[in-house]
Write a structure and sequence with these properties.
Elements: H1 2-11, H2 15-24, E1 28-34, E2 54-61, H3 68-82, E3 89-90, H4 101-110, H5 152-162, E4 167-171, H6 176-184, E5 194-198, H7 205-210, H8 219-223, H9 225-232, E6 239-242, H10 253-259, H11 265-273, H12 281-290, E7 295-305, E8 316-319, E9 330-338, H13 340-352
Parallel strand pairs: 1-2, 1-4, 2-3, 4-5, 5-6, 6-9
Antiparallel strand pairs: 7-8, 7-9
Length: 358
């Protein structure tokens, strides 16, 4: 670990400048951990990367919707285009803790269709596949930037050690990087101010059958079940789970027209690359971390992940205080409902800004 941290500290984020910035302003320190996807990229970190109320000290990438190299290069280009090239990007885990593509394919044959497999999707008409170190075509041109030196997990550890109790994290992809950070430093979780997770869907089985199997499959937990369970049992002081509520706000044509009514680099990028018709999953998680008062209803429960390699492998399970088994499960707050109108207003304002982060 000493060697890994030495490497990271040589090119991580500049601790002294961040400490100085923190002394000058009360802006909250935030890290966004995500499988950013291509080419939607950093749009998923809005509104955090546009808010003057926070200082995003790093974006950490993880395998999920695509592989890490692909994520990193498109994310770096996105940040150049929208005027946030100051934010460092760290390459994270390119494989889950235990799960493999062949194991997932075998699980699928035994149990049921896994509707979205992200980086592990099979080729089909109109959709090719790439390898773990490949980069998909970049329609906005190549980036001039390089990722920050060092592994994402080590950056997470060093950042939190430098600012104990001050850094909030939104994790909107598989939780592999956070699980590795927990294993690198047993004090990591306890020193994080707040963790917001996009995932942990509960009571979703009926909606898998009647609404959309993809939307209610809980990809982020099921792509790396062991990582999700490590994180949920690690001792974070506060965990908010953005669960099924994340499917309730979609990018409709009307909403998109409202966003792009004002032309900015962000709205131009959003009009071209946003996931039209799909829910604003990760954006909602980012907005909730930015402004917790968006949550209008929530439920506190104790949660763990099913690690048996059966039908429910990777699924979240919850208990009340009265029924929990006391096997390291931790209390989480599941977001049941949000102020939808205000969330949409936040997104419109964030995307229409001409001075993101200022």
């Amino acid at each position: 670990m000493k060697t890994l941290r030495t490497i990271v500290m040589a090119g991580v984020f500049a601790m002294a400048p961040i400490a100085a910035a923190h002394a000058e302003t009360p802006r909250r320190l935030v890290i966004v951990d995500n499988d950013f996807g291509v080419p939607v990229s950093g749009l998923q970190a809005v509104p955090l990367i546009t808010s003057p109320a926070v200082q995003v000290i790093g974006l950490t990438t993880v395998v999920g919707d695509s592989y890490v190299t692909d994520d990193v290069m498109h994310l770096l280009r996105f940040l150049e285009i929208v005027g946030r090239a100051d934010i460092p990007v760290y390459a994270g885990a390119n494989t889950p803790i235990l799960r493999t593509k062949s194991e997932l394919n075998a699980w699928e044959r035994r149990n049921s269709t896994f509707p979205w497999k992200g980086a592990w999707n099979e080729p089909r008409p109109g959709h090719g596949v790439i390898g773990p170190n490949d980069v998909q075509p970049m329609p906005m041109g190549p980036t001039q930037r390089k990722p920050a030196k060092g592994a994402a997990a080590a950056f997470l550890v060093d950042a939190v050690q430098a600012h104990p109790g001050e850094i909030s994290i939104v994790a909107a992809g598989p939780l592999t990087n956070l699980a590795l950070a927990v294993r690198l430093d047993p004090s990591f979780a306890a020193n994080v101010k707040e963790l917001v997770i996009m995932g942990g869907l509960v009571d979703a089985n009926l909606r898998q059958a009647t609404v959309d199997a993809n939307l209610y499959n809980d990809f982020n937990f099921k792509f790396d079940p062991e990582a999700a369970d490590i994180v949920l049992t690690a001792g974070f002081a506060k965990i908010r789970i953005v669960s099924c509520v994340a499917n309730t706000v979609r990018l409709t044509p009307e909403f998109l027209r409202r966003i792009v009514a004002v032309k900015t680099p962000l709205t131009d990028y959003y009009e071209r690359f946003s996931l039209k018709g799909l829910p604003l999953w990760d954006e909602m998680a980012s907005a909730i971390l930015l402004d917790g008062t968006l949550v209008t209803k929530s439920t506190k429960v104790f949660m763990r992940v099913d690690l048996d390699h059966g039908l429910n492998y990777g699924g979240a399970y919850v208990w009340s205080e009265a029924t929990r088994p006391h096997l390291d499960e931790r209390e989480v707050e599941i977001v049941d409902d949000i102020d939808t109108k205000r969330f949409m207003d936040v997104m419109v304002s964030a995307l229409q800004t001409t001075a993101p982060g200022k």
